[in-house]
Specification:
This protein has 257 residues and is an alpha/beta fold. The chain contains ten helices and eight strands. The protein has an eight-stranded parallel sheet with strand order 1-2-3-4-5-6-7-8.
């Protein structure tokens, strides 16, 4: 079984003690491609370094909505420079809206979400979208921007199956991770059942959101077979087939051969 983890954070401090050993274990266990996702300028720089030092790791650079309060045009140009100078940077992300907390203000989040979509469009790169408690505003911005032309993925999807279909119809992929194994994941299970398997990609968001039976522990790509098995159960498919299709989907998402 060959697996593509479309959303990981292997530069996170949670991996400082055993990063290289773990990354070697991943390739030994069929995790043959990973996209490391960034949250700010520092993690974007980390992602560039990881992608340069490991053949099977690609990267996305971007500023997370929770980290955009002090963002400037200089930061946007720094992201542009990273993407233009490194062909292993395959997306802009993660970007979007997060209304779970009161900060940063919504207008600031919207400004930099829209600006990073413009950046992605100018670079002809897909976007990795983080959206939490901001369903309608996220959809409105995407519909009113260049995002449908860039394509991308709705990371850690948590909204209705009907809204998922709207994104799928615009050409976006739906990112499915460990949450699909949780007992309270009814909406995500319904979404996976409802949308075509050709629109699903698998992700970890590691070190976060480990699947059952590892919930609450540090996540890694080694646990993706549990996600794939759950998707296969929901869709009435063979896990090997799910792994194969989602691998090809991830290559299409990130424009990789």
């Amino acid at each position: 079984m060959e697996i593509f983890d479309t959303h990981a954070h292997y530069d996170d401090r949670a991996f400082d003690e055993d990063r290289e050993e773990l990354l070697k274990a991943l390739t030994d266990n069929g995790i043959t491609r990973i996209v490391n996702i960034s949250e700010d300028i520092r993690t974007s720089e980390n992602t560039v370094r990881l992608s340069k030092s490991h053949d099977f790791i690609y990267g996305a650079v971007g500023i997370h909505p929770n980290d955009c309060a002090d963002t400037s045009e200089d930061d946007i140009e720094a992201l542009r420079d990273m993407a233009e100078k490194n062909d292993k940077i395959v997306a802009i992300g993660e970007i979007g809206l997060d209304y779970h907390y009161d900060e940063p203000p919504k207008d600031i989040q919207k400004k930099w979400f829209e600006r990073q979509i413009e950046l992605a469009a100018s670079l002809k790169l897909p976007i990795v979208i983080h959206s939490r408690d901001a369903a309608q505003d996220t959809l409105d911005i995407i519909k009113g921007s260049a995002a449908p032309s860039t394509g991308g993925v709705m990371h850690c999807y948590a909204y209705s199956k009907e809204m998922a279909k709207t994104y799928v119809d615009m050409g976006f992929f739906i990112g499915v991770g460990g949450v699909v194994t949780f007992k309270n994941a009814r909406k995500l299970v319904e979404t996976v059942e409802y949308i075509p398997i050709e629109s699903v990609v698998v992700e970890t968001d590691c070190p976060y959101l480990a699947p059952v039976p590892f919930r609450g522990k540090r996540n890694s790509s080694l646990y993706l077979p549990y996600v794939i098995e759950k998707i296969a159960e929901i869709k009435g498919m063979d896990p090997e087939e799910v792994a194969k299709i989602t691998f090809e989907n991830a290559k299409r998402l990130y424009n990789l051969s």
